[in-house]
Amino acid sequence: MIVEVCANSLESAMVAERAGADRIELCTELAVGGLTPSFGMLKAVREQVSIPVHVLIRPRSGDFTYSDEELHIMISDIELCAELGFDGVVSGVLLNNFTLDIDRTHKLKLAAGSMHFTFHRAFDWVKNPKEALLELERMRVNTILSSGQQRSAPGGIDFLVDLKAQNTAIEIMPGSGVNAGNVQMFKEQGFKAVHLSGTAMKQKLPSKPLISMNSEGFLSDDHIAVTQFENIETVVSKVK
């Protein structure tokens, strides 16, 4: 059984490799579901980690519906991953009605070429999962990462088993909430791979700072923060 570790840093990736993980999904910012890592992080992991690494291609937090400009950024990131010799990418695009964006996802798959392509947990938002599964199979997507459309994969086990029973060429990989206490259930159900972060919070400072730099108001699944023209124009007009 393949154990894929969602690593949010070079340190996490190196720890996962030492612990016996078979593969890494490399990202940053687990708090928002993961984002594309920087060039510097990609380069460091490529140089210091020897097991296969799949890179998350997700340019921002929030929803999985992307503009043409965002899609271009994602394609450029995929091309960079190919140039650096990574084994795969993890990505996907939805329409705002929670169906698969076939056109944009296909463009990402084409950009990935021969690299392994995993459709990520955007799948847990689709309202027509079996139809989406067949569409992804037609695109020759290799893997779907899913929690079974529940908060965690153990809670979505019945959905995941049913999805696997469709007998498509796509591997169904359970992820979210997988740990040593429940991983055996996935092996017993015949899944060939599982996905987990295996993280714990590590204290970095001896005490809390004076103020927090985290902004809860920016955390949303259905809104994104966008600079407003009038807000900037007004400030500029007052100081210029």
Describe the structure.
The protein is α/β, with parallel strands linked by helices and 240 residues long. It has one domain (2-200): Alpha-Beta Barrel (TIM Barrel), CATH 3.20.20. The chain contains 8 helices and 8 strands, in the order βαβαβαβαβαβαβαβα. It has helices at residues 10-18, 39-48, 68-84, 102-112, 129-138, 157-164, 183-188, 229-239, and strands at residues 2-7, 23-26, 53-56, 88-91, 116-119, 143-146, 171-174, 193-196. The protein has an 8-stranded parallel β-sheet with strand order 7-6-5-4-3-2-1-8. α3 packs parallel to α4 (102-112). The protein is globular and about 65 Å long. The mean pLDDT is 97.
Short description:
This protein has 240 residues and is of the alpha/beta class. The chain has helices spanning 10-18, 39-48, 68-84, 102-112, 129-138, 157-164, 183-188, 229-239, and strands spanning 2-7, 23-26, 53-56, 88-91, 116-119, 143-146, 171-174, 193-196.
Major sheet details: 8 strands, parallel
Provide the number of structural domains. Answer: 1
Fraction in helix: 25-40%
Principal-axes geometry comes out as globular
Class in CATH? Answer: Alpha Beta
**Rg over alpha carbons:** 19 Å
- List how many beta strands DSSP finds: 8
The CATH architecture comes to Alpha-Beta Barrel
CATH superfamily, by name, is Copper homeostasis (CutC) domain
Integer average pLDDT: 97
Helix/strand/pairing class, anyone?
Answer: alpha/beta
User: Topology as H/E string?
Assistant: EHEHEHEHEHEHEHEH
In quaternary terms, these chains amount to: single chain
Spatial order of the strands forming the largest sheet: 7-6-5-4-3-2-1-8
Q: Count of helical segments?
A: 8
The CATH topology turns out to be TIM Barrel
In the predicted model, the low-confidence regions spanning at least 5 consecutive residues are none
